[in-house]
Amino acid sequence: MIIYAIPIPMLYLVWHNIVMSLTSRVFGLFSTATSDSTAPVGDSHTPTWTQPTTGGINDSYHTVHNDLALLEEEEPRPPYLHAMLAGGTGGTCGDMLMHSLDTVKTRQQGDPTFPPKYTSMGQSYSTIYRQEGFCRGLYGGVTPALLGSFPGTVIFFGVYEYTKRLMIDSGVNPSIAYLSGGFFADLAASVVYVPSEVLKTRLQLQGRHNNPHFDSGYNYRNMRDGFRQIVRLEGISALFHGYKATIFRDLPFSALQFAFYEKEQSMAKQWVGKRDIGLGLEILTAATAGGMAGVITCPMDVVKTRIQTQQNPPEPPSGASTAIPPPGTPRLDTSSVFTGLKMIYRTEGIAGWFRGVGPRGVWTSIQSGTMLVMYQYLLKQLEAYQIMEGSLLLDWLRPPVP
């Protein structure tokens, strides 16, 4: 696991510089320009500053000072830009850190052979690493995963924060607001991440090109070749195969994850009082929320993986991506998620619904822990940077002492 942790500090330093640069340029774009008393409690009252004229220095100074005082009195909500950048960075780091375990889960769930080659998590991990290596084996499909992860999580956190705040300010129960926020956020982000998910899962299941150790039915040279073959042989709609199953998996997952997380965060803050809950509780609340949501939604994940990686009826007589699956692996009906669940249950029992539940539970726990802890940390860093800029501006606006 030490191998996976090495790039994270370097990645954070790069993104930290980018985030700070972007924030300084669009500082007032995503924050309210006024701080009137009719705003809901908890809203971010970040002032929008413009360079004052010479005659208005005193008025500008007092306006900025009052806005900063209001920021300190309230518990401000982060500006949307901060939430989106922090969430996108945290989500991408979590996905990249745990991609190898996601590959193990995909192999277990989508293995077309019968009996399956990949059984336990440890056996699958060591077999893939020994036979196919680290980059082409365990980290197969990492490029489409990266291309879908950052924009997807940026959209997710933007929509989540907007929906949650809108519902809470309208008097909706917070638990319902958290569930609804996760639901609508994932629905909005799905347009971006489902095509990348199709490419990712097929490349993960395939492993390296011309893989002599495992026949998945696919043989793409790389992501670009996979994209071309899917569009040419199966049509552009194939990039959205399993869209319904993905929605059935990810909408309840995100809703449950953030409902669990917000509730656990509230309980943790009540337990520690006015003190900061600390890194230990941050990790615990994030990891348990993701882990519980991942285990609960595992049956939907199995259906989604099978639909996205199974061989579709070939239109051409032959082709690299249209091999016929071996006997013993029935083709799932893509028109109904529940029909797919019934087919798996008839042939494999309850165990079929929870194939890969071990790596999925571990993956969602660590991925959620990484994403949400980094999200909170980056929000604090961005807030500190914003306050520092405000202080420098106050010094610049302060009237000279006669």
UniProtKB/TrEMBL annotation:
Put simply, this protein is called: Pc12g06090 protein
Keywords associated with the record: Membrane, Mitochondrion, Mitochondrion inner membrane, Repeat, Transmembrane, Transmembrane helix, Transport
- List the InterPro entries: MCP_dom_sf, MCP_transmembrane
Q: Does the keyword ATP-binding apply?
A: no
Could you read off the lineage of the organism from its UniProt record?
A: Eukaryota, Fungi, Dikarya, Ascomycota, Pezizomycotina
Where in or outside the cell it occurs: the entry states:
Membrane
Where would you find the membrane-spanning parts of this chain?
138-160, 175-194
In the record for this protein, the Solcar repeats are positioned at 78-166, 173-267, 281-381
Fetch the Gene3D superfamilies from UniProt: Mitochondrial carrier domain
Q: How is this protein positioned relative to the membrane?
A: Multi-pass membrane protein
Main location (coarse class): membrane
Which superkingdom is the protein from?
Answer: Eukaryota
Q: Which family does it belong to?
A: Belongs to the mitochondrial carrier (TC 2.A.29) family.
Q: Using the UniProt annotation, give all residue ranges assigned to the region (Disordered).
A: 307-331
Keyword Transmembrane recorded: yes
Annotated organism of origin: Penicillium rubens (strain ATCC 28089 / DSM 1075 / NRRL 1951 / Wisconsin 54-1255)
What GO CC annotations are associated with the protein? membrane
Query: What PROSITE patterns is this protein classified in?
Result: SOLCAR (PS50920)
